[in-house]
């Protein structure tokens, strides 16, 4: 196999979207799995849509996800420049060569003339609104012009796609298309084909929404008798209703920056995205970067749309959160607690205790705030099933005994609370479920919840006694 060189080629028209992140990640995995090179090339020729912070955002969040590259705007590998706007003289050179070869021609039609031509074709019921070629053969004129590629007649363009197998396009379905605009800036497909050749790109892995671009790129490559890269068009990512992800779909977080801001872990997101359209030879879903690289095989790219399963993402991120040390979990969650004004003036130990209470249920950092509010700031209410449980013999005496012992505590800590629960059980001859469940219900109103001593410590002695009183008034 020839040297593996793949590229992720974002346009800086916005921030890193989940679909683009998957494209970047699969190219990265393909390069690393095959001892190849991963290149980040900036396709910034759509000047009107470029966002000032677009490049920095793309690069920083690729890095945050755990991707590193071998060549890019900040890492020259000898194939630069890596921004298309810095390569305009290159595109001009090859466009002129196509003119000299008779494979392209100058088009002097204005935008208004082209639109009028299209409307006339529509009125006549044409099914193919191709340019009429009325500028083909015109002598050179000193006036603004585009350069159009002269599409060969009656030719088929076939390529073997890594995902889809053989794909064929007919030239008759593609009109003569512009390769260089009036402002000397190349169109996407022309610049892409030239760059892929000059940068010696061996494989082009991208979303299937790009598949219709492929024949135009093949035309350029074939015109110069350049070797074609191998193409692989990955299926689209769809939502749980099997609809293509739309940036207007607010039920799914779609930009990597938002995951960072909400306190998702980059390793978990890397793991999740790698499974969107790829089925590794492993029964495990929780896989490290190294494991995913070792397992990655383009032959196992899915031929069916990849479903963005939020529950699966939450499951994976929760599994990663559970592996964090106390210090790491504190670092993840405390900024959100601080912003919400929770625990003002408390020491780190208090925050660690709070986070430990919810860690098993914690999906992402920001969620710690809602977990706190939902549990500690809900008005006390005794659930029906819980109230029925408390009607059993000996329960009221247990609660009274526990309350009395809590009132006499000088030191109110998880350890002293745990000891007090055991003492209350011993004094009333209650144990197991008949010890812990009544106390949990008595202090929280619920039959389920986080670690009992930790929870009561965080509630504080005053609120704990208040809830015990409310329970006893109902029994």
Give a verbal description of the structure.
This protein is mainly α and 475 residues long. Among the domains are: 87-234, Rossmann fold; 379-474, Arc Repressor Mutant, subunit A (Orthogonal Bundle), CATH 1.10.10. 45% of the residues lie in helices and 10% in strands. It has 19 helices and eleven strands. The chain has helices at 18-33, 54-65, 88-100, 111-123, 188-198, 214-223, 256-262, 266-274, 289-295, 310-322, 326-339, 348-358, 367-376, 384-389, 395-407, 414-428, 433-444, 452-459, 461-474, and strands at 5-8, 37-40, 104-107, 146-149, 156-161, 165-170, 177-180, 203-207, 230-234, 237-238, 306-307. The strands form five sheets. It has a three-stranded antiparallel sheet with strand order 3-4-7. Strands 1-2 form a two-stranded parallel sheet. Helix 5 packs across helix 6, helix 8 crosses helix 10 and helix 16 (414-428) packs across helix 18 (452-459). The radius of gyration is 32 Å and the shape is elongated. The termini are far apart. The model has no long low-confidence stretch (mean pLDDT 94).
List the helices and strands and how they pair.
Blueprint: E1 5-8, H1 18-33, E2 37-40, H2 54-65, H3 88-100, E3 104-107, H4 111-123, E4 146-149, E5 156-161, E6 165-170, E7 177-180, H5 188-198, E8 203-207, H6 214-223, E9 230-234, E10 237-238, H7 256-262, H8 266-274, H9 289-295, E11 306-307, H10 310-322, H11 326-339, H12 348-358, H13 367-376, H14 384-389, H15 395-407, H16 414-428, H17 433-444, H18 452-459, H19 461-474
Parallel strand pairs: 1-2, 8-9, 10-11
Antiparallel strand pairs: 3-4, 4-7, 5-6
Helix pairs in contact: 1-9, 5-6, 8-10, 11-12, 15-16, 15-17, 15-19, 16-18, 17-19
């Amino acid at each position: 196999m020839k040297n593996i060189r793949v590229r992720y080629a974002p346009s800086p028209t916005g921030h890193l979207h989940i679909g683009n992140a998957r494209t970047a990640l699969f190219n990265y995995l393909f390069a690393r799995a095959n001892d190849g090179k991963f290149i980040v090339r900036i396709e910034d020729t759509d000047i009107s849509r470029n966002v000032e912070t677009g490049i920095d955002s793309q690069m920083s969040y690729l890095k945050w996800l755990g991707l590193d590259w071998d060549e890019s705007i900040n890492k020259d590998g000898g194939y630069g420049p890596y921004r298309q706007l810095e390569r305009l003289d290159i595109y001009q050179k090859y466009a002129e060569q196509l003119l000299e070869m008779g494979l392209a021609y100058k088009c002097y039609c204005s935008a208004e003339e082209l639109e009028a031509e299209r409307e006339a074709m529509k009125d006549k019921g044409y099914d193919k609104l191709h340019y009429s070629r009325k500028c083909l053969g015109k002598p050179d004129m000193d006036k603004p012009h585009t350069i159009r590629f002269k599409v060969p007649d009656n030719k088929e363009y076939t390529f073997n796609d890594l995902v889809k197998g053989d794909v064929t396009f007919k030239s008759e379905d593609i009109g003569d298309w512009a390769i260089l605009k009036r402002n000397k800036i190349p169109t996407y497909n022309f610049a892409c084909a030239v760059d892929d050749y000059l940068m010696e790109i061996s494989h082009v892995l991208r979303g299937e929404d790009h598949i219709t671009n492929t024949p135009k790129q093949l035309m350029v490559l074939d015109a110069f008798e350049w070797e074609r890269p191998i193409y692989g068009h990955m299926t689209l990512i769809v939502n749980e209703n099997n609809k293509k992800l739309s940036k207007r779909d607010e039920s799914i977080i779609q930009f990597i920056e938002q995951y960072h801001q909400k306190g998702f872990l980059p390793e978990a997101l890397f793991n999740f995205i790698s499974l969107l359209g790829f089925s590794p030879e492993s029964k495990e879903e929780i896989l490290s970067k190294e494991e995913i690289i070792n397992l990655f095989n383009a032959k196992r790219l899915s031929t069916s749309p990849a479903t963005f399963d939020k529950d699966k993402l939450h499951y994976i991120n929760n599994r990663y959160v559970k592996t964090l040390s106390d210090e790491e979990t504190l670092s993840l969650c405390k900024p959100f607690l601080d912003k919400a004004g929770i625990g003002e003036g408390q020491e780190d130990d208090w925050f660690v205790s709070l986070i430990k209470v919810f860690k098993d249920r914690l999906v992402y950092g920001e969620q710690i705030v809602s977990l706190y509010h939902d549990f500690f700031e809900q008005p006390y209410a005794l659930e029906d099933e819980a109230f029925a449980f408390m009607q059993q013999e000996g329960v009221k005496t247990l609660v009274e005994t526990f309350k009395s012992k809590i009132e006499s505590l000088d030191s109110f800590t998880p350890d002293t609370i745990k000891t007090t629960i055991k003492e209350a059980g011993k004094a009333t001859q209650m144990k197991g479920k008949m010890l812990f469940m009544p106390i949990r219900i008595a202090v929280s109103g619920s039959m389920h919840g986080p670690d009992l001593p930790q929870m009561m410590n965080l509630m504080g002695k005053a609120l704990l006694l208040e809830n015990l009183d409310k329970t006893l008034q109902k029994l």
